[in-house]
Design a protein that fits this description.
A two-stranded antiparallel ribbon has the order 1-2. The chain folds into two domains: 38 residues, no CATH class; 56 residues, no CATH class. It is largely without helices or strands. The protein is rod-shaped. It binds calcium ion (2 copies). One calcium ion binds next to loops.
Length: 94
């Protein structure tokens, strides 16, 4: 067989027939990068963060969504831990 031939994509390290890895690479060689990936559930699923999925950040992989972008987020409950913050003022004057 003479002439030029396309390389076998199966021999390319990291190649995927269907893009499946959030890595900032176009693993299926179709142009778009990290497209149509199925995001895993976020690590923090408490409070307003319930039901959220991770976001693909390219080279940094999957990251939990930024809680400050969630409607209703309050800095008082910055840990988004499911607990309701209650004011318990107990200061006394001496
Ligand atoms: Ca792709
Ligand atoms: Ca990818």
């Amino acid at each position: 067989m003479a002439g030029w031939a396309e390389p076998d994509p199966l021999q390319i390290v990291g190649y995927e027939a269907v893009e499946a890895t959030c890595d900032g690479l176009d693993n299926d060689c179709d142009g778009p990068i990290d497209e149509e990936l199925i995001a895993p559930a976020a690590d923090n699923s408490n409070g307003l963060c319930a039901g959220r999925s991770k976001e693909c950040s390219g080279g940094l992989g999957w990251l939990d969504p930024d809680p400050t972008q969630i409607i209703g987020y309050e800095a008082v409950e910055a840990t988004c831990d499911g607990w309701t913050t209650t004011a318990t003022a107990s200061s006394t004057r001496s």
